[in-house]
Design brief:
With about 475 residues, the protein is an alpha/beta fold. It folds into four domains: about 180 residues, Rossmann fold, CATH 3.40.50.720; about 80 residues, N-(1-d-carboxylethyl)-l-norvaline Dehydrogenase, domain 2 (Orthogonal Bundle), CATH 1.10.1040; about 80 residues, Transcription Regulator spoIIAA, CATH 3.30.750; about 80 residues, N-(1-d-carboxylethyl)-l-norvaline Dehydrogenase, domain 2 (Orthogonal Bundle), CATH 1.10.1040.50. The chain contains 19 helices and 14 strands. The strands form two sheets. An eight-stranded mixed beta sheet has the order 3-2-1-4-5-6-7-8, sandwiched between helices. A hairpin with a 6-residue loop joins strand 12 and strand 13.
Length: about 475
Amino acid sequence: MLNIGTVAVIGSGTMGAGIAEVAASHGHQVLVYDIAAEAISRAIDGIRQRLTSRVARGKLSADASEQILARLLPVTDIQALAAADLIIEAASERLEVKKALFAKLAAICPPQTLLTSNTSSISVTAIAADIHHPERVAGLHFFNPAPVMKLVEVVSGLATSPEVADTLCELAMNWGKQPVRCQSTPGFIVNRVARPFYSEAWRALEEQVATPEVIDAALREGGGFPMGPLELTDLIGQDVNFAVTCSVFNAFWQERRFLPSLVQQELVLAGRLGKKSGKGVYDWQGDKPEVRWSETVSKRFSPIHVEQISDGVTEIDDVLLIETQGETAQSLALRHQRPVVVVDRMERDVAVIAVASSNPDTATQKAICYLQQQGKRVVQIADYPGLLVWRTLAMIANEALDALQKGVASEKDIDTAMRLGVNYPNGPIAWGERLGWQRLLTLLENLQRHYGEERYRPCSLLRQRALLESSYES
């Protein structure tokens, strides 16, 4: 590893302060640079408060806390950064600002100084394009809060040398982080592969499929995600989440699968930015609405005959209960010429269902009664192909495979990034393997057929894995 002693952090906002705290906690002298001295003071005061809290909880000694604070040196003259071995920029997410800043750094720093950006989506290749020795420029993307989150994306631009990427990975591990390597493509790993988690929720909300609390509960309690997508965007900030989506969408030349949401745009325009403004999808100043689960069905609807016809299909008297494969309940009812209830993936004790409009009420009640007898809380949504959990999982796995096929990162690093960066219960590729590639392919093909959109086009690697899966099974 190249010898890294002094670290400079540019920008004293939340991310800059967090990164400075990490570096100082691991023995580095840290130059904290900002054009405003009062911003640096606020950042160091925030670090002091966090360290004091750790001391009070017995997580850190008072002496260690003082040593960390002593390593933080406020800097308002950019020329002083020439003394740094590693510079981490955590300033404005605007390409023109970063290019101008890195050009200035390249002029004042010796060629061996590593120049890195904490950008979450801007091209590292573009940042390095016009500077001397672009091989020393890389992305070093921490996740918020930097002192807590384990993941760091080490991003190589077109000119980044392998030795620089190796050094940054080793440094991240020395700082107690888990690095993942990726190429400089829009959104890198996490902000690219996570887009369907948000976009499918916004689409369901736009099409009035269900209320926000039902959408969130389905993904959280039925899919196993730590938070629902809509409540998570409120927590992140609607402006921040929307800006990243727009950035990825435009960087991919308006690829439809990254299409931003008009509903989210309306929230941003209205200043309803989520928890930080008091209102977003939810009103954070009041009580969060609760999911209205189906009432317990009378025993008179208890099924007389129940038979598992095939994987994912259960016959309940005259009703077919079918786990979704991307078709509407009504289309299935017409094909089978009998009542149909479609159910989403049931990871825990939640069952999200959709019913054919031609169903007699008694048929739907029998299916609900059966699910309740299996210990499930049932909630009904509109007749929506792929429902909520299955279509989201399929889109995430498809995006992960597309990133893998295009050389963005390795399979292991993609799965690690999604588990550690956004706390998914499983890596999307390992998840897809367990769910079944053929199942995911069928679901996406049915969604593409239903909507007539490129948005749901399966990537070629998904088709290949589904084909291999089928050949193994045969």
